[in-house]
Amino acid sequence: MKRIFLLLLLCASPVFATTTVTGTIQNLGTQTVGAGTFVRFWLRGCAGNQPRVNGTALIAPTNGGVFYFDMVANASGQVSGTLYSTRDAAGTGNGEIECGGSLTAVWYGMQAFVNGKGGPEVPIAAKIGATIDISNVTPLTTNPVVASPTGDTTYARLDGGNTPFTGGISVPSLNNIQYVDCVHSCSPDIGVGINAAIAAGPVVQVPSGTYSTNTTVIVGAGETVVCNGTILQPASSSMTIFAISAGGQVVGCNADVTNQASWSGKVFSFTDNYREGSYTQLDNFHINGTGITTGYGVFMSSASGSQAIAFVSVRHGKVEGLEYPYYLTATGAASFVNGNNFSDLTADKSVYGVYMVTSNSTAAITGNNFSNFLFQNGPSSINSIKITGSSATTIVGDVFSPIDLFDTTTPISIDTAGYGITFVGRWDGTISDGGTLDNFLQSTGWT
Questions:
Q1: Across 86-136, where does the E strand assignment appear?
Q2: Is the dihedral of CA 213, 219, 223, 227 positive or negative?
Q3: CA angle, corner 45, sides to 101 and 20, nearest 5?
Q4: DSSP-assigned states of every residue in 274-335
């Protein structure tokens, strides 16, 4: 009779599987940590679904929509308890906790707490019938497989594991922003990939890294290229890396031309027709030409009155080395470079810092504003600011304020082309001024 009664009790018991937890908590001095100490097991992977043990229990939330269970250490620092299992005995199959239709989506995040402060969280699986020793656990290193969305029979996991194709999923375009895919288009010529993305435009995101280019990146009206720690290296010494047309914007893009023995090319070139309202911008850039004494960084050239450089914004940039970090020229009849804004710029150990030159009696470089310009003299440096032209009074009314020109012998050199140019700031050395009505306000002392 007793055997029959025991059999009935077993049949009436709920059928579920658990995992035993044991272990001891100590400090680095091998001492027991007991008071105020516990191990918390966070339930992870439910993604907002209600966890449950089918046919046994609905898992109650611990704190709102958060699920966890604390095992408090006794006075000897020992922890013991039981958890519902997240995997089968092998650690690969179904566990007991179901979330969103999946029995393999969840895992535990194990975290020790002492006096209310938690340590790092370790992702673990609780295997059916196994014992977790908190001092000897093997962390999970791969994300569990999450069940497909409810009611959605056509979908693809990010790892491509449930699809007829292989590999991960890339997103070339999202919300009208194009993303340059460096798996396919960054090598051997990232310029090709960027131009292809611009064609699909209008906003292009370029990934971080150092890439070679043998193709000029052409940024047109209404187009924006945003680099994220991207460094472009020219494949030839005479190429133009970026050609920025009126209305184009380039942000965060850098160049390293030191891979060329000499550099005669241009990193950022402005040779289109720029007028008020075009909103052309170059922002947040760095050019590394350390040790190179040739070539151009930012190049602006007007060849005629119908092809002017006006109201362009260049800011937050640094050029190391090169002959002409910031070069402005007007070459043809009635050509002009006018009203452009340059701010927060540095030229470091370059031959020149800012170089302005006209080569026609009716050409003009006027009303350009340089604010917060810094120049550091180097072994090959000649002038921080050079103003020169083939005809008198063709470079007029430009303003440099404030400026800091360090360790220079002749910081500013102006020939007869200069007229009414203003300089405010600090500099070393002696100015050479062959212009007319130029203004100099030098701050005293370096702080």
A1: 97-98, 107-114, 117-118, 122-124, 131-133
A2: positive
A3: 95
A4: --TT--EEEEEEEEEETT--SSEEEEEEE-BTTB-EESEEEEEEEEEE-SEEEEEEE-STT-
Nearest of 196, 190, 261 to residue 227 by alpha carbon: 190
Q: Cis omega before residue 188 (within 30°)? A: yes
Residue 260, CA distances (Å) to 128, 269, 296, 358 in order: 63, 19, 13, 29
Q: Which has the closest alpha carbon to 241: 215, 205, 208?
A: 215
β-pair partners for 374? 346, 404
Q: In whole angstroms, what is the distance from residue 21 CA to residue 25 CA?
A: 13
Cβ 353 vs Cβ 347: under 8 Å: yes
DSSP reduced 3-state for 433 = strand
Residues paired with 419 in a beta bridge: 396, 436
CB burial readout 212-231, b (16+ within 10 A) else e: ebeebbbbbeebbbbbeebb
pLDDT tens per residue, range 53-107? 998 999 999 877 789 999 999 989 999 999 999 999 998 889 999 998 889 889 9
Please give the Cα distance from 76 to 86 (Å, whole number).
Answer: 29
395 strand-pairing partners: 365, 418
Which amino acid, residue 99? C
Structure tokens at 416: 């007869």
Residues 6+ apart with CB under 8 A from 198: 178, 204, 217, 218, 219, 220, 223, 225
Residue with tokens 């184009």: 248
Contact in structure between 122 and 129 (CB atoms under 8 Å): no
Count CB neighbours of 382 within 10 A: 16
Please list the residues that pair with 249 across neighbouring strands. 224, 281
Given this model, what pLDDT does residue 141 score?
Answer: 80
Joined together, the tokens standing for residue 356 give 């302005």
Rounded Cα distance, 320 and 151, in Å:
58
Six-digit token pair at 175? 């919300």
Summarised one tens digit per residue, pLDDT across range 379-419 is 999 999 999 999 999 999 999 999 999 999 999 999 999 99
Ranges of residues in the chain with a pLDDT under 70 are: 1-16, 143-177, 181-185, 187, 444-447
Measuring CA to CA, which residue among 269, 218, 277 is closest to residue 247?
Answer: 277
Taking every pair of C-alpha atoms in the chain, what is the biggest distance, in angstroms? Answer: 122
SS3 at position 102: strand
